[in-house]
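Worked example 3 (structure in, sequence out).
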């Protein structure tokens, strides 16, 4: 790795905190990736100040498996988050699934604790809603958010609305205590999640505590929502309103790091759990740019994601990388920056991206496209082999 990282590890008075923005957005939703309306000025500036990854992938084209992969550094077929039914069409965890992340898995926050990190998740957990799967049982110290997405509203009896938690305590439910207007799309949730992030960062900076912030909000997941200030402001409809609010929030978080004087001590990464959900188009679906299909599929539109690394003073501004990356790499890269080794008792699929980020090197590695327990495709270099294809058209979905 580069001398910058090595000197950081050796200097005990300096720590590296981590911020991961993990959302559902498509490759073509950002101006930096070619979206013509250019309504993401803050993310575009993040890219101009950091490094853009053009060939970055998720580990699965659905929410839950990709989140499990990010936090474990392992493919879903290894960490237990996969299904086996009909080419795994239902490879996610709705509220009536009783399983969750296995105790045998070691999550990134559990390992960062060994280096004295304080860890917080804000937003969607999606790795099990039963008590044994609670984020605070898997390394997180704080949580504000929900075990699942804001599906609903439900009837509150046979199928109650999704709960929202602060740490161990349930403090309300979506649509009831946390309002979401399905007619207008108005909801103040992104602003609440933003303030949670700002307060957490301020608290850790005041105590000189290294931290891991996992900001996993769901405003761009159907049913899409945005706060009143952003409604009707985008050329792209309600989905664009939500993207604009997310962009504004990320800009405020990055400026907050700079204001507190800790931006050079904080490695930040923005990416997505899967491609834009074309099944929610046209009103609530995003853009995957030039790529075929979207969420649920192992075509590029379902698995190639926007990705930006930001670390002022360490990552050269305006960098563009063609390194084949994957969300699982954030696990290994974060451990590397914290001076920790990945677990040696299991197969880790993520690689350390520091040579690519700090030195511009290209690491030879394959990308596997899984859906459930089936490897649908594989990419090596410039070539991709499809073994099985499945699109998200209603015609095929109904078969």
């Amino acid at each position: 790795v580069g001398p910058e990282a090595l000197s950081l590890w050796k200097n005990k008075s300096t720590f590296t905190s981590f911020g991961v923005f993990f959302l559902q957005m498509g490759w073509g939703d950002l101006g930096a990736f070619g979206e013509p309306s250019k309504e993401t000025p803050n993310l575009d500036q993040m890219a101009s100040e950091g490094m853009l990854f053009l060939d970055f992938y998720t580990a699965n084209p659905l929410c839950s498996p990709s989140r499990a992969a990010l936090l474990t550094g392992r493919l879903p077929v290894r960490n237990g988050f996969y299904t086996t039914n009909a080419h795994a069409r239902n490879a996610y965890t709705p509220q009536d699934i009783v399983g969750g992340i296995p105790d045998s898995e070691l999550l990134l926050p559990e390992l960062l604790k060994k280096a004295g990190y304080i860890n917080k998740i804000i937003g969607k957990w999606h790795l099990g809603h039963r008590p044994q799967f609670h984020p605070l049982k898997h390394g997180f110290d704080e949580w504000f958010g929900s075990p699942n997405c804001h599906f609903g509203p439900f009837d509150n009896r046979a199928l109650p609305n999704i709960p929202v938690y602060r740490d161990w305590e349930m403090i309300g439910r979506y649509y009831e205590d946390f309002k979401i207007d399905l007619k207008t799309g108005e909801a103040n949730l992104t602003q609440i999640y933003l303030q949670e992030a700002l307060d957490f960062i301020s608290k850790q900076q005041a105590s000189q505590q290294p931290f891991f912030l996992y900001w996993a909000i769901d405003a761009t997941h159907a049913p899409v929502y945005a706060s009143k200030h952003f409604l009707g402001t985008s050329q792209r409809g309600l989905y664009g309103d939500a993207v604009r609010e997310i962009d504004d929030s990320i800009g405020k978080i990055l400026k907050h790091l700079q204001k507190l004087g800790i931006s050079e001590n904080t490695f930040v990464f923005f990416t997505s759990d899967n491609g834009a959900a074309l099944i929610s188009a046209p009103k609530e679906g995003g853009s995957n740019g030039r790529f075929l299909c979207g969420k649920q599929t192992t075509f590029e539109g379902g698995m190639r994601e926007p990705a930006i690394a930001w670390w002022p003073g360490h990552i050269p501004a305006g960098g563009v990388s063609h390194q084949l990356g994957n969300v699982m790499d954030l696990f290994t890269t974060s451990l590397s920056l914290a001076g920790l080794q990945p677990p040696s008792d299991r197969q880790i699929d993520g690689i350390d991206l520091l040579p690519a980020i700090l030195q511009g090197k290209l690491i030879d590695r394959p990308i596997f496209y899984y859906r459930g327990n089936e490897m649908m495709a594989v990419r090596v270099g410039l070539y991709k082999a499809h073994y099985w294809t499945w699109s998200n058209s209603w015609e095929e979905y109904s078969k």
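Notes: The radius of gyration is 19 Å. The longest strand covers residues 17-23.
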